[in-house]
Amino acid sequence: MGTENAATRVASALRTDILQGDISPGARLSQQDTAARFGVSRIPVRDALQILAGEGLVRPSTNATAVVAGLSVAELQELYELREAIEPLATRLAVPNVGRAELLSMRKQLDIMDSQVDARVWLSANAAFHAAVYRQANRPRMIELVEQLRCQTDRYMYIHLETIGQTEHLSVEHRGILAAVERGDAALAADLTREHLATSHDFILTYLLKEQAEVSGSGGRSSFPSST
């Protein structure tokens, strides 16, 4: 297996572990230990950690290590503020270019999300649903930024799916977006995308603030500090 393929494989596995919380915020990832875990040299591990650093999931540290980025209310706010500004614009630009293939893909991903209880599969289908639209905006830098923000936000969405649950409203919102795209109503699709993001933002923020208050009241330590 080439170094590039090995780096991609290691990055994918570490990304999944981080998103699911199997590797905790603040954990240190050494190149040596990670290489031993995956049975590869340190070079693909170094490259994998660089990939994850570019996605905002880890931060480079000293002695050939990286630290898993923390979760915080402040970060959640910033991520969603950015997404709520950019993704409706991507939607508005994209809708006139959405064709039959994209609509078929959106319907397929909706069916997957409606039939899945596995958060990982749901998140993957959710990303594909929205990407089917956004990519038609023909704004590669914008789409790259959207993907980076989504990847970082998925850590919080995993909390939504695994802890909060309540995905029925997400299905309704997705179908509303699809209907607007099918009609070619770019303005409505953009508005619905903004509302969709705001709903998820509110759900997760409410949970994190409640969890923070409960832990603070009990004298413990919250997993979600008010700032990183």
From TrEMBL:
It holds the Pfam family FCD. Keywords: DNA-binding, Transcription, Transcription regulation. The keyword RNA-binding does not apply. It comes from Mycolicibacterium fluoranthenivorans. It comes from the Bacteria. GO terms for molecular function: DNA binding; DNA-binding transcription factor activity. The keyword Transcription applies. Residues 4-76 form the HTH gntR-type domain. This is DNA-binding GntR family transcriptional regulator.
